[in-house]
Amino acid sequence: MNMDGDLVLSVRVGAAGHGTRGLTARAVEAEEAGFDQVWSGNDIFGPPGIAGLASMLLSTSRIKVGAGVLDPVSIHPAQIAQIASGFQELSGDRFILGLGAGSDVFFGWAGLTPAKPVVRTRQAVIAVRELTNGRSPAGVPGAGDCWAEQARIQQPRPVPIYVGAMGPRMLAMTGRYADGALPLCLPPRQVYRSMEQIRAGAAEVGRSVDEIDIAGCLWCSIDPDPTIARRLLARHIAHYSGSLSTDVLLANGLDPEEFARTQALMLDGDEDAAIGMVLSSSTMLELGVVGGAAEVIEQCATLIEAGARHLSFGPPMGTDSSEAMALLGKQVLPVLRSSFHVDAVGRQR
Q1: 130 and 266 both lie in a single domain
Q2: Residues 232 and 267 reside in one and the same domain
């Protein structure tokens, strides 16, 4: 949580394509660039994300390292609490635990049949919080009925718990129970709707949304040549054009038919035409923050002025991802920090 008024700036590096040594290097780069937090994930059947998180923590000294996210199906909540407590001890309390529902498709590959996504995530948030505070989840409302009074971990250590959430029910649950939220904001202005849904959930249990660190998770493409940055983002959008929520697109004034046509071109193997469609659209590039440093600053400023207190870039796209991160650190982050300060309710000062 960020209660001191400082803008939080984080970066998501992902585990795919890096390997453990690559993740370690990216965490060091993020710390050197001046980010407050660096996030990487762990998917069942994906890269060894937990090993990467350990290495990231060992290789850095200041930056906070977040798991974005662990799921309570392939990893039992008691083990998640053990891992989180161990990472806290290892790093001097620089670890942030991100929890999410995970993928039912991936779970099916392993023969797992979990509870509904919101239910299993809520139970995990409540149970892990109890366990990392040295208590048993037995009898705690919302933690599930499976726990015995003896269910306590050794060497517990409290940890901030964030939730990877996109849908309204998951966002409302996050507002009721979590310390932070990781909503994927496509387009970036979707962060406003996410904040309202989290605020509604928090109000149901008498919490203030100011207690919750809402990380607006953005796609970001930056390059000294804005034309290159836009093409890189267009390629990214083309690859994900069939995976985006129609409801979210419509709610933000985007045309789902454009994305359907782009996806059809991708399925036909014509990536260049798909990229061209994104570039020729008047709105599709609005899914991310894109351009040279000045343009990225301007787009981020709009979000901050509207109340965002935490911007999470990732993964930074550029002709070279390390150079893109360094560019953010040298030319974007210092301007955002010097130009914007937010008070306790997220207003710019």
Answers
A1: no
A2: yes
275 domain residue, yes or no: yes
Token reading at 162? 């964030």
Compute the distance between CA of residue 221 and CA of residue 44 in angstroms, rounded to an integer.
28
pLDDT confidence of residue 316 = 85
Alpha-carbon distances of 326 from 23, 46, 115, 142, 234, rounded to whole Å:
15, 27, 42, 43, 22
Mark whether 292 and 272 lie in a shared domain: no
Concatenating the DSSP letter of every residue in 163-209 gives: E---SHHHHHHHHHH-SEE--B-SSTTHHHHHHHHHHHHHHHTT--G
The predicted model scores a pTM of 0.93
The domain tally of the chain equals 2
Position 348 scores a pLDDT of: 46
191 & 240 share domain: no
pLDDT band of 347, cuts 50, 70, 90: very low
Using the predicted structure, report yes or no on whether residue 173 has a pLDDT greater than 70. Answer: yes
